[in-house]
Specification:
The chain is mainly beta and 527 residues long. It contains 2 helices and 37 strands.
Length: 527
Amino acid sequence: MKFKYLFTALFFVFNSIQEINAQNWNTNFGVNGYSKIEINNRNTRGNILLQLDDGSLIVGVNSDYSQWGALFDRNIYIYKLNPNGLIDASFGTNGFFFIPSGSFENFSWVSALTYSNYDHFIYGLAKVAGVKTIFRFDTNGILDTNFGNNGWLNEATNGIYNILLIQNDGKILLVGMSYNNNITKQSLERYNTNGNLDTTFGNNGLVINDLTNYAYEIVSSAKIYDNKIILVGSSYNNNETQSLATISRYNLDGSLDTSFGLNGYNITFIGPDHLACFKDIDINSNGDIIAAGFNLHSGGTGGGHGNKAILVKYNANGILDNSFNGNGIKIFDSINGANDYFNTVSYLKDGKIIAGGSSGSFFPIMQSYYYLTKVNSDGTLHSNFYNSGYMVTDFENGVTNVAQDVITTSKDEIFSIGITRDITDTYFIAVVCKMDNSFLSTNKFYENETVLECLPNPVNDYLNVYSKLNIKDIQLFSIDGRLLEQKTINNFEEKTMLNFEHLSKGNYLLKFTDSNGRVIRKKIIKQ
């Protein structure tokens, strides 16, 4: 039998990240599948994304400039993107809805945008010139002066709110924390459609609740489902020696729903040190709950704790779903062996899950990647999603890249928003992406990957590939998605040797495509 020696010359073909991602994003959206929003000489931080009925997107951006380690002139810009990903110049004034900053510490910062199916307005929650404010505008970017005081409604209590939800009856629900004597507790506040506090909710419109005996209750995300309010976050002590992931459920009158979890909540122990925090939540049509965030573990890069991304699935009753990864909890291996976390999660119609966040690099390399993954309903990675279940990118070689929000639509479209850096690596810029769903499902994959084996793995020099498939193409990728080499094969033998001798130590991905277009991917470790 003949042996073929591939990659011996190691003529590396380094494509830029942008060129690789042109294959990953839906190229009919924006430019090469994503839209960037830049404001000259300012940071432009994309953090909120929602889709309107006509397919257009509302984008929430916080903008500032940095000097001497501080942020100045912090303003809010809200844009509307047409379905093709281009900015709608007719929206607002000059293409955006603008909220200016106040004086030095009285900055403006938007934390939530929600479209209301009740009255078809968009509601925002922001700090406006230092004052926590609810505002309402139409889908053309025009402030509704019939709401509150000429479109603005100052939040009535001393809460720290970052979440705004609209009930089916149009009532406005704020979710976050109360702060008193250096202690925070879960807090909910509700308004009638006329902007007055709803005194039928909780105690004269306000609910304050403490789940644990720890000093701090943090609420990161909330959803309304089946006339219930579900919150996720964390609870921790002053020294943060223990951070517990929390999920709780309230009735629409503000009382804890004691049929959920254990008397209305579930304190979830994640990882050996029980250090975890939930950042986002989504609920599918069956009531199944998926929470995303991160687990802190000892021995992180650069000393101290490291982060690993997590997904935790609950049944509708608040009990962990053991069909998901065996115990309801999935702790992801770090992509680059450093710090990873999820900020956002969303269900697809078939029960699969899209999560997004950031993947870091080893200290002292200050590099992070925009990180998206797709997971099956049982917690396994969806193998035909980019590189064996996940995708990382730095766009045009930006140093800092983070996915902040992911939404999935009724058509199973996948959009995400986050930040990257400009070409000079001076400013943050907002980036909105649309994933190519046809790319995700076109290739046929073998369920039993033992039809192709790679040995030894880890490898020092030569990797033996055994397969009875008619392999026509082999691609070698770095762990961050760069295509390093590609080889077209005319006559594949049952055994092939690939030379890894000159590659640096680390993780790599091999993608094999046979003559029928079927794909198998293998993660290879070079020692």
